[in-house]
Design goal:
The chain is an alpha/beta fold. The chain has 10 helices and 13 strands. Strands 2-8-7-6-5 form a 5-stranded mixed β-sheet, with helices on both faces. A 4-stranded antiparallel β-sheet has the order 9-10-13-12, covered by helices on one side. It has a two-stranded parallel sheet with strand order 1-11. α1 packs antiparallel against α7 and α3 crosses α6. The longest helix is centred in the last third of the chain and has 24 residues. The protein binds 4'-deoxy-4'-aminopyridoxal-5'-phosphate.
């Protein structure tokens, strides 16, 4: 026996590639093509660096209060962290501790099984239907917790709030996490249900709709009780998760509702146009309400298109996995970026 027998071994999550070149069209990690709200740059430029001598506010009060106000909640119903990955990882650690298997769809955010493995949480995946829709009945059974991305990734498919509500209502003995990373591009949020169900935790992020993936801000909203338990675990792990600069930048973003509405609408409009063009080029895809489209070509294999795009400086995401191996997940960029990609695809599919 060596020390290696004592290591917590895990197979890590694989994030989308971050190419070093600057002049590529990067549509592989669902980033927002528009800059953060102007107030964010102003907050960072005006940040008093002397403040950095001190530890940041462990309660992240300024950001938590801004988010509570934005969502019509009390500050005791909001928890903020270092991206929603941090918030979700903390939530798995806090709420999925029964020994019973947690449930999530077979095709979904591929970090869920990684956290489950990391924490030794048993899990059972539930197959999506043939249209990549969630089958609510699969979640009406004994479990140690449920996590559902809505809209789902990488499919882009959104479930109605009423479907999520039925799952939450059917599981009073479990915490149900709804991961709303993409909800701002046209999904139906479960935040209005929070006051009715104390076992519902809704997680959102600044990485997509707020154009701040590089800042690392995510948050959870739920009953006071859930948020208290989450904070107990956080304060047993690392009191100072969020830096002072991130908090100031986050507050500035939340304060500019008009810019948020404008940029999310712009991305959604480009997505609708992209869908029409992709359909014209022979792609099929489930209806997306996110900032990406999950598309398969009727005749040309995804791997082939993926490589052709990549060779031409256009990055999309492709997984060699059961059921989705012939799909490409194409994030929505600016209109100009989408025009270039669509023009390339048109020529490539014609001439190959
Ligand atoms: N949830 C889903 C469904 C995602 O696709 C992502 C982005 N990879 C995240 C959570 C995490 O995003 P972040 O940590 O940047 O908030």
């Amino acid at each position: 026996m060596s020390w290696e027998g004592n290591v917590r071994k895990v197979v890590p999550y694989v994030a989308g590639e971050q190419p070093k070149e600057q002049d590529v069209i990067k549509l592989n990690t669902n980033e927002n093509p528009y800059p953060p709200a102007p107030g964010v740059a102003a907050a960072i430029r005006g940040f008093d660096c002397d403040v950095l001598r001190r530890y940041p506010d462990p309660d992240v009060s300024a950001l938590v209060e801004a988010l509570a106000k934005r969502h019509g909640l009390d500050k005791e119903q909001v928890f903020a962290g270092v991206g929603s990955d941090d918030v979700l990882a903390m939530s798995f650690l806090t709420f999925f501790h029964s020994g019973r298997p947690i449930l999530f769809p077979d095709i979904t955010y591929s970090f869920y099984d990684v956290w489950a493995d990391l924490y030794r949480i048993p899990y059972e995946v539930q197959p999506l239907d043939d249209d990549f829709g969630i089958r609510k009945e699969d979640y009406f059974r004994e479990n140690g917790g449920i996590v559902i991305a809505n809209p789902n990734a990488p499919t882009g498919v959104a479930a109605d709030r009423s479907v999520c509500e039925e799952i939450v209502r059917a599981n009073p003995d479990s915490v149900v996490i709804i991961d709303e990373a993409y909800v701002d591009f046209g999904g139906e949020s479960c935040v209005p249900l929070i006051d009715r169900y104390d076992n519902l935790l809704v997680v959102q992020t600044f990485s997509k709709s707020r154009s701040m993936a590089g800042m690392r801000i995510g948050y959870a909203m739920g009953s006071r009780k859930l948020i208290r338990y989450l904070n107990d675990v956080k304060f047993s792990f690392n009191s100072y998760t969020m830096g002072a600069v991130a908090v100031a930048a986050g507050v500035a973003s939340v304060e500019d509702e008009a810019y948020f509405a404008e940029t999310t609408a712009k991305v959604a409009a480009t997505r609708e146009r992209t869908k029409r063009e992709l359909a014209r080029l022979g792609f099929v895809f489930p209806d997306s309400r996110t900032n990406f489209v999950f598309a398969a070509h009727r005749t040309v294999p995804a791997q082939e298109i993926f490589e052709a795009l990549r060779e031409n400086g256009m990055y999309v995401r492709h997984w060699n996995k059961p059921r989705i191996g012939n799909y490409l997940r194409i994030s929505i960029g600016t209109d100009e970026e989408m025009d270039k990609v669509l023009a390339f695809l048109e020529a490539y599919l014609r001439d190959r």
